[in-house]
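re the bet — no i am not wrong, look at it urself. input seq straight from the record:
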Amino acid sequence: MKDLVRMRTSLKEEIERILNEQIKMEAHSSAIYLAMAAWCDRNGFDYSAGYFYKQSGEERNHMLKIFKYVSDMGGHAISPEITNVPQEFDGFRDLFELALQQEIAVTNSINRIVGTARQLNDFQTDQFMQWFVKEQIEEEYVARRALELFDVIGEEGVGRYMIDKAIPKITYDGDAEGA
């Protein structure tokens, strides 16, 4: 039966396995961002809560994009079980440190998928993953800039309020002149 299933898909077993791992990673990221949004809501950081709700939705969309690709290619996309999602965080800055760490981990995972696809001459998966490669440039940039606000503005006085208000305004324009 296994050979028959392989005949219905051009995805090699290794590619299908690591794409399913990425599906789980994206779902986990979505859940973490949702927990961060809830923490911000509970602690009065309304603008950052909105930012993390948006991030949670984006990560879920990334998960679904990969899920659909695996299915469209005749593979077996696996709906992930999500565990170990923190609900409490040490502080406002810690959320953004964790967000940057999360985005770097996702970038490394995507790079591994692309490298494996190229090694196995899977040009379809390589091409599909290029959208994610570009997306991670933006994701890391925004996460890094958000964290840098803590050093630039500082948390004393109205600092946290100013940081909270500035978070949703961070954008990435990689096509700008001189960028």
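see?? The mean pLDDT is 93. told u. also Residues 123-153 form the longest helix (31 residues). so pay up
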